[in-house]
Specification:
Elements (H helix, E strand, L loop, with lengths): L6 H23 L2 H26 L21 H10 L5 H20 L11 H28 L10 H15 L7
Length: 184
C-alpha cells in the first residue's frame, strides 16, 4: 500500500507548512491581522486532522476527504462544526473549545468589524500569544494521535523517513505558496 496521501489530503497537508511559513513571515513583519487569520486557520486544520486521525483509530470508514475539501454541492464543515465534533469526540475539553471559539470570534471581529469599532491595530498584539498557546495545544493533540496510530499500526500515520516523499512534499508546499524563496 502506498503511503502517499490522496490529492486532497496532500494539498491539505502542504497547506499546514505553507501557513506556518506565512505565519513566520507575519511575525517577522509585524503583520498582526495576517497572523491572527493564519492562527485560526491552523487551529481549524489541526482539529480537522485530529478528527480524521481519531476516526481512523476507531476504524470509522467515513469519507475523510469531506473534512479537508470543499467542493460545490459537497459536505461543508464550518469551523464551529469542527469545534463541536472535536468536543463530542473527546479530543478537546469544554475549556479549550471555549478558548478556540473566543479566538475565532475575535478574529472575525477584527476582520469584519475593524472599521466599525474602536479597535486599534496595536490592541491585537497581546492576543497573538493566546493564539500560539492554543495552536501548541491542538498540535499536541494531533501529535498524540499520530503516535497512537504508529504504535497501533492503524490509520494514515506511518513511521519512517522517505526522502522521495519529503521532496514531493517540499515541492507541493512551494507550489502552495507560489514563492520562489520558500525557505522550507
Amino acid at each position: 500500500m502506498s503511503t502517499q496521501p490522496k490529492p486532497g489530503m496532500a494539498d491539505f497537508i502542504a497547506s499546514f507548512a505553507a501557513a506556518r511559513q506565512l505565519l513566520n513571515r507575519a511575525h517577522q513583519s509585524g503583520s498582526l491581522i495576517e497572523g491572527m487569520v493564519l492562527y485560526v486557520s491552523l487551529i481549524d486544520g489541526l482539529l480537522r486532522t485530529a478528527i480524521i486521525l481519531d476516526k481512523q483509530l476507531a476504524g470509522d470508514p467515513d469519507d475523510l476527504d469531506k473534512y479537508v475539501q470543499q467542493v460545490p454541492g459537497g459536505a461543508r464543515f464550518t469551523e464551529k462544526a469542527i469545534y463541536d465534533e472535536a468536543l463530542r469526540r473527546g479530543l478537546i475539553d469544554a475549556t479549550l473549545k471555549a478558548e478556540v471559539v473566543e479566538l475565532y470570534e475575535h478574529r472575525n471581529a477584527v476582520v469584519h468589524r475593524f472599521f466599525l469599532t474602536g479597535l486599534r491595530y496595536t490592541d491585537l498584539e497581546p492576543h497573538l500569544g493566546r493564539y500560539e498557546l492554543v495552536f501548541q495545544q491542538t498540535y499536541g493533540i494531533v501529535a498524540e494521535l499520530e503516535d497512537r496510530q504508529v504504535r497501533e499500526g492503524t490509520g494514515m500515520t506511518v513511521e519512517g523517513n522517505d526522502p522521495e516523499a519529503a521532496a514531493i512534499s517540499l515541492a507541493h508546499i512551494a507550489g502552495k505558496l507560489g514563492f520562489p524563496d520558500v525557505g522550507v
